[in-house]
Amino acid sequence: MSDQRAVAAIDLGTTSARCMLFDQRGRMLSIAQREQRQSFPQPGWAEQDALELWRTVGRVIPEALASAGLDASNVVALGIANQRETTVVWDRRTGRPVAPAITWQDTRTGPIVEQISAHAEDFDRIAGLYPGTYFAAPRLRWLLDNVRGLESKAQRGEVLFGTLESWLIWNLTGGPRGGVHVSDVTNASRTLLMDLHSLQWSSKLAGVFDIPEAMLPRIVSNAEVYGRCTTVLPGVPIAAALGDQQAALFGQMCFEPREAKCTYGTGAFLLMNVGTSIVRSRRGLLSTVAYAAPGAEPMYALEGPIAVAGSLVQWFRDTLGVIGTAPQIETLASTVDDNGGCYIVPAFSGMFSPHWDPDARGIVVGLTSYITKGHLARAVLEATAWQTWEVVNAMTDDSGVPPARLAVDGGMTSNHLLMQFVADVLDIPVVRPFVSETVSLGAAYAAGLAVGYWPDRAALRANRHTAAAWYPSMDARVRRREAAGWRAAVAQALTIEPAGDH
Fold this sequence. Notes:
Elements: E1 6-12, E2 16-22, E3 28-35, E4 47-48, H1 50-68, E5 75-82, E6 88-91, E7 101-102, H2 110-116, H3 120-127, H4 136-146, H5 150-155, E8 159-162, H6 164-172, E9 182-184, H7 185-188, E10 194-195, E11 200-201, H8 203-209, E12 218-220, E13 223-228, E14 237-243, H9 244-251, E15 259-264, E16 268-275, E17 286-291, E18 299-306, H10 310-318, H11 328-333, E19 343-345, E20 363-365, H12 373-399, E21 405-409, H13 416-426, E22 430-433, H14 438-450, H15 457-463, E23 466-470, H16 476-493
Parallel strand pairs: 1-5, 5-14, 9-12, 15-21, 21-22
Antiparallel strand pairs: 1-2, 2-3, 4-7, 6-8, 10-11, 13-14, 15-16, 16-18, 17-18, 19-20, 22-23
């Protein structure tokens, strides 16, 4: 067996679980991936089998090791990144979930959110968030209300709550036989229950939901040894956990204020490091923890989630049938020089940041006989860039400073036309790193720092290599004119009355 030393990272996403191994130069040695199922038993419900997620992780780790010709003795630490807000409750004695995991897309908790909306100012002041179905605590309250006998078991401390990093760490460290019950600050900050200042559970907010604190995990930093694996990777320290978007921020090495990243996938998630002070948003952004390390002040971030990005290209391909494959949209859009005055606002089910309007509806503006398939393709791509522009403007207004550049990752970054347009409308450089798996890389870097595999963040920066960069070249007058067209289109989308309300 090789004497190679490596850090392992688990990326537990919505549709798949992956394990990657990284060496000291930040190079990926191997990857193993398995898909996992989702279920949608009722409209607005989205669930997964937490036991299946755990079993999938247990399979991808040995597969990644085998692919690299390594075993557990070669692994110096394990880091975890996960889909945020997904809620699991399980029996402390048996380790079995009491119900399916309720995932981040689920909206069944609307009535609970309505009930606690009177406390919106408290949630904003303490947690940095507004009440919404997006977060974990309303799902936990729903389970307590709807799983027979769960409330009394929770009061007696017989069941445990956690987001997915909690669930994985507990199982990896022994489960019913002494498993460690913790939640890292980035995931805990997405529950509506954590005090952003103290980085501890807020008794006041837990009281609003009437959640027994006995079932809550202990909150820990993002880079410390929580415990050692007793299964899958016996003896390996679990030394990092981060929510997936914060992991990408760390993997992109956005360690200083004004450094920002955007992950472009089905939707898009833009985070900007704002330093050691919490920035309260007046413009529809989320205040959250960027990362925290032992003995250091926590770093905070502003976040702007965008609901529709790559899924608009999928709609253009699958529903309209204009293109046969996603990459063809760049070729089609390149047949024209601009959008011809056509804008597409993809509010398929409302709009996320910075508008937060669930009643907004998608709209195509500026259709004339001049418009071709090429113009429509360009409008599809530009919609993602303009939504990014809106979030960056909100971040600049809230923080007082614009990002110096935008680090990007995700599948859509292979579209050079789109990335150039993002650089043009933001009027800042856009940079894509050589290692595109920034979520897993961020989890690995945090774990490696915790155990001394890398001495400091300067060593991580030495590993960074740029794969592609785009620099703004758009005339300011053109940018202002195009931005005015986008604003006018969004204004119309925000005033459409949803179908069925007539």
